[in-house]
């Protein structure tokens, strides 16, 4: 099976030795997206919800670059530096997804790159 790299300038460039996403057959494995502004490479200004929205916007851009969209995501991984923000993540998520929702894990972590408070990764299934 071939592996094809996915890249878009509408999402932040990788900040390490990895790809924004890799397509393997009909599956696209999306690397974690933190709330970086693609133009500046800096964490977006605003509250926690603004960070979550930016991370989902970045994820959406990579999905679209792969030929898919958020509705084709089968699995999400959510990483929060503070699980007390769990309800806020759920509220923002409903702005981007509708039922049936992707399978998901939510994990509290001690830190994320560049001091982000939220990160999301995903597995997308294409037709």
Please give a structural write-up:
The protein has 127 residues and is of the alpha+beta class. A hairpin with a 2-residue loop joins strand 2 and strand 3 (27-33). The chain contains two helices and six strands. The longest helix is centred in the middle third of the chain and has 18 residues, at 48-65.
Throw out a few tags for this protein:
127 residues, alpha+beta, six-stranded mixed β-sheet, 29% strand
Q: Which regions contain 5 or more consecutive residues with pLDDT less than 50?
A: none
> SSE string, helix = H, strand = E?
EEEHEHEE
Task: Report on the biggest sheet.
Answer: 6 strands, mixed
- Broad structural category: alpha+beta
The CA-CA distance between the termini, in Å, is 16 Å
What's the gist of this structure?
The chain is an alpha+beta fold and 127 residues long. Helix content is 23%, strand content 29%. The longest helix is centred in the middle third of the chain and has 18 residues, at 48-65.
